[in-house]
Specification:
- The complex is a heterodimer of chains A (277) and B (435).
- Helix content of chain A is 73%, strand content 0%.
- Chain A has 277 residues and is mainly alpha-helical.
- In chain B, strand 8, helix 11 and strand 9 form a beta-alpha-beta unit.
- Chain B is 52% helix and 13% strand.
- Classes of the chains: A mainly alpha (277), B alpha/beta (435).
- Chains A and B meet through helix 5 and helix 6 of A and helix 7 and helix 12 of B.
Chain lengths: 277, 435
């Protein structure tokens, strides 16, 4: 369970990210270079503070194994997403990607503050269960990216169809690049989610009757939502065979997949507090 | 003390034929700057030559030396023309107006095409060249460095340089918003209109993987192929060409659309639904407008592209006020910095001179009063110091705030130098610092 000090520091990180986000959006109204610099600095400092909280949390609970509790899991997701934004912006910048991903990061950190204060779940440390969790959360990170970039694709596509003039920081990059990003994220996320699904099912089958999803586990919302996400991303990845699924359709599907995945994450929060999740 | 001068002619005052007479290539610029150094030793100069303007910026040591007429004659002589022939074309500025003019020019507010960024590079080149020739110094160096920074600031903080002003460059912008790289893309050109050639010229700069040229007249297609490279093809193969193409530029003289929706719809599967960017600049149009309803098809005609050009023009006009405000702020900032730098030594030398005189008078008086105590001596010295400070306070305040009511600040400075005899370097008594 996070200490009040850790929660305070995490709230500080949220404030930094929020200031950075505001600066990033406000750069459209003037002083773009100064505000962009402020936004970047906030991103770096927010990441640094979040990592500091993560390390502090690991020290206080006396374990360095990631994803052992809610607080840790949410923090990991937020850190990985922020690191991804920073990586993209320093290697092959995509204007405005932070507008789509950083709100999710802030929401994850807020969720960490809220759900992290509850009694931690009793995670089993079996390799099987741990692999299930890591792959499921890793897949979630990839799908957040795919969903955010998918939204950027739809906006860019609509602008091109309406022949809107785009200036300054609202140019999200070319459709081809955004589509490439979506495809790579979905491919990675799909692979991780598939492993997460298989390991999850194996875990349940190993504990018939005592698993946290109950006897009718197959109809549990988390299983149904995750299966839905899996099918949607399978369709997106189907594009090379059926190219009609490319472009706008793939972008829309990746957003629907993201919404379902958020539903699955929320479903996890409502599950019984003991057991494998 | 430095004085700033500028004389020049531009597209606003001289036609092309006149500007041609004063066109200098870089070698000629070097030669002129060398001559300037010899003729006006101790003066600084930068010669800015673009296709739209020729301007000589000079910083001189003393007021009206050399006078502007002499600089005009010098520039005319360097081109072998008589000054009176072009008298009506020249404009000149001095002091603050020079700073304002240069900042306006470098921000492209005075350019023929508002917001063009080329001028920034041209000013940099002119300054670099003068700097290499050792003809810039303590005034023109900071002036031009500040000017370049102002130009960048205007471009980054306003919409003055945003958008495109030609149909061809707008088309390229759209292509870049659809495709990330072009080395694996195929450009198909149908027809051979003038506008299409311009677009092709721009597209060629993107280094597309393949260029296909298709025209009713094979000889015209071959001519284009010689100019732009690429493979010529017959219109009979149009379906195959459309399957291969990622970007299509069409400008035939056909009276009916040659690319209809029915024709293109059949090709979608063979194209594997790849995005296609179609630029239809034919009149009447070559592409059926309903084609744009198809998935992954981006169709732009001449009107669409022209509309963007018009939007850019009006957007740039809207940004003028913001750009002018930046220029004005920066002019004030530079002038204030320059004045502080110029006034500092003058005020110092004035105070030093009068404190020295007061000190001498005090010494003379004290020699006549042998019974004066040390404390009394100190009181007298303090009295003299205070009188000098109070006498000089008002003129100094006026000088610092001089803003051209009766003439430019440089004239005040010049008058001060002459009135108070400050041109000779005064001796530096150790305790003569102003208080």
């Amino acid at each position: 369970m996070p200490t009040p000090g850790q929660l305070a520091l995490l709230i500080f990180a949220i404030v930094i990210f929020a200031i950075g986000g505001a600066a990033s959006v406000l750069r459209l109204q003037g002083e773009p270079s100064r505000r962009l610099l402020l936004a970047k600095q906030c991103l770096y400092w927010g990441l640094l503070v979040s990592v500091a909280v993560l390390i502090w949390h690991c020290i206080t609970r006396g374990s360095w194994i990631p994803l052992e509790d809610n607080f840790d899991a949410m923090l990991w997701l937020a850190i990985l997403l922020t690191a991804f934004v920073l990586y993209v912006q320093t290697t092959k910048p995509v204007e405005g990607i932070d507008w789509f991903i950083m709100p999710i990061v802030i929401l994850l950190l807020v969720a960490a503050v809220i759900f992290g204060r509850e009694k931690p779940r009793l995670y089993t440390l079996q390799t099987w269960a741990w692999v299930h969790r890591v792959t499921a959360y890793g897949g979630a990170v990839a799908f957040v990216v795919a969903g955010a970039v998918g939204a950027m694709y739809l906006i860019t596509n609509a602008r091109l169809r309406n022949r809107l003039v785009v200036t300054g920081g609202t140019n999200f990059g070319s459709l081809e690049r955004l589509e490439h990003f979506t495809r790579v994220s979905v491919t990675l996320g799909f692979a991780l989610l598939t492993i997460g699904l298989i390991t999850g099912v194996v875990e349940i089958l190993h504990r018939p009757g005592s698993n946290p999803l109950g006897r009718d586990w197959f109809f549990h919302p988390i299983v149904l939502l995750t299966l839905g996400v899996w099918v949607i991303y399978a369709l997106v990845l189907h594009a090379p065979i059926n190219p009609a699924f490319r472009g706008r359709r793939a972008a829309m599907l990746s957003i629907v997949g993201l919404v379902l995945m958020i539903g699955a994450i929320i479903a996890v929060q409502w599950m019984p507090k003991t057991g494998g999740h | 003390m430095h004085r700033l001068l500028m004389l020049g002619l531009s597209h606003a005052t001289a036609d092309l034929a006149t500007r041609e007479k004063f066109a200098f290539n870089p070698d000629q610029q070097r030669e002129v700057l060398e001559q300037f150094k010899e003729k006006f030793p101790g003066c600084e100069a930068v010669l800015l030559c673009t296709c739209n303007r020729v301007e000589l910026y000079a910083a001189t040591k003393t007021l009206n030396d050399p006078p502007i007429e002499e600089l005009t004659s010098f520039l005319c002589a360097s081109r072998g023309v008589r000054p009176e022939e072009f008298a009506s074309h020249w404009y000149h500025r001095s002091e603050r107006a020079v700073v304002h003019h240069l900042f306006t020019v470098v921000s492209s507010l005075d350019s023929m095409v508002l917001g063009e960024s080329q001028i920034l590079g041209q000013v940099r080149e002119a300054y670099d060249l003068a700097h290499q020739q050792n003809v810039t110094g303590s005034l023109l160096n900071p002036l031009f460095q500040r000017a370049l920074a102002v130009g960048k600031q205007v471009m980054s903080e306003t919409q003055l340089g945003a958008g495109r002003l030609s149909v061809a460059s707008v088309a390229i912008d759209y292509a870049r918003r659809i495709f990330d790289h072009f080395d694996d893309k195929t450009v198909l050109n149908i027809g051979a209109g003038e506008m299409a050639e311009l677009v092709l010229q721009h597209l060629k700069e993107l280094n597309p993987g393949q260029l296909l040229l298709c025209n009713r007249s094979v000889s015209r297609a071959e001519e284009l192929s010689r100019r732009f490279g690429g493979r010529t093809a017959s219109l009979d193969e149009l379906d195959e060409l459309l399957v291969a193409a990622d970007i299509v530029v069409t400008s035939t003289g056909a009276s009916e659309p040659i690319i209809t929706r029915a024709r293109f719809e059949k090709l979608l599967k063979a194209r594997r639904y790849r995005p296609i960017f179609i630029i239809d600049i034919a009149m009447p149009r070559d592409v059926e407008p309903s084609i744009e309803k198809l998935e992954n098809v981006y169709l732009y005609n001449l009107d669409h592209l022209q509309q963007v050009v018009s939007q850019t023009q009006s957007q740039r006009k809207d940004a003028i006020a913001a750009a002018q405000q930046i220029v004005l702020d920066q002019v004030d900032s530079f002038i204030s910095w320059h004045r502080r730098r110029e006034l500092g030594p003058l005020i110092d030398s004035l105070y030093q001179k009068y404190h020295r005189i007061a000190q001498e008078e005090i010494e003379r008086t004290l020699n006549k009063l042998p019974n004066t105590t040390a404390a009394e001596k100190e009181h007298l010295q303090e009295l003299a110091r205070r009188i000098v400070n109070k006498l000089l306070h008002d003129p100094m305040r006026m000088l610092k705030n001089a803003e051209g009511t009766h003439g430019p600040p440089a004239q005040y400075l010049h008058a001060m130098e002459k009135l108070f005899g400050l041109t000779e370097t005064p001796e530096q008594p150790p305790d003569s610092e102003p208080k």
